[in-house]
Amino acid sequence: xxxxxxxxxxxxxxxxxxxxxxxxxxxxxxxxxxxxxxxxxxxxxxxxxxxxxxxxxxxxxxxxxxxxxxxxxxxxxxxxxxxxxxxxxxxxxxxxxxxxxxxxxxxxxxxxxxxxxxxxxxxxxxxxxxxxxxxxxxxxxxxxxxxxxxxxxxxxxxxxxxxxxxxxxxxxxxxxxxxxxxxxxxxxxxxxxxxxxxxxxxxxxxxxxxxxxxxxxxxxxxxxxxxxxxxxxxxxxxxxxxxxxxxx
Length: 248
Prior knowledge:
It is an enzyme of class 1 (oxidoreductase). The chain is of the alpha/beta class. The chain has 2 domains: 5-90, Translation factors (Elongation Factor Tu (Ef-tu), domain 3), CATH 2.40.30; 100-244, Rossmann fold (3-Layer(aba) Sandwich). The protein has helices at residues 76-79, 119-125, 129-133, 152-161, 185-190, 193-198, 215-229, and strands at residues 5-14, 19-25, 36-43, 46-53, 63-68, 87-90, 108-114, 136-143, 166-172, 207-212, 242-244. The longest helix has 15 residues, at 215-229.
């Protein structure tokens, strides 16, 4: 296990029947907000690992990982059963390029997420850098049911401290929920409902967009942004406005 760090579970917070936040105590190296690492357990004699985004900001501890318990999932079902004091392995180095220092200049940052994809965006929102880099920051979180709109204490704290800069837009698709939009993110981008809600225009001059969550949402939203708003995918060789992370 020389290539792994051994962490101790501080808390396994259960939000509902499937969503968990696993908080870990470990002496972890420096990372950038928006990055991910790997968690691992030994299962039936084999080490099984999966990538998980770091939800906490780089200067806070414990490490925080937001995950969904997948039915018959080899690792997630065991993560869901961990208790305070249990041990788990963590990869010793975070990775990923969906970080603030990779983005070109822009006035407005859109963080568009589904489900547990909100995790890396919470890490970014809890840094000072994002508020210095952008005039407005929009967090979109799309879920099926209202009880999947998690981390509300954290989001409310950001609303209070960054009231002039921060816009939070929840989506709930399978029931009515106060202040939440209905439907899916790609359609709301295409039909203008997201712009109407935020009061901001999505365009290539002012906007930077980060996408994280369900791959179908990511690809559909990227297509809409390219075809209807004139944005393009970002890379270091060819700067653009749309950034995504591939670790599925």
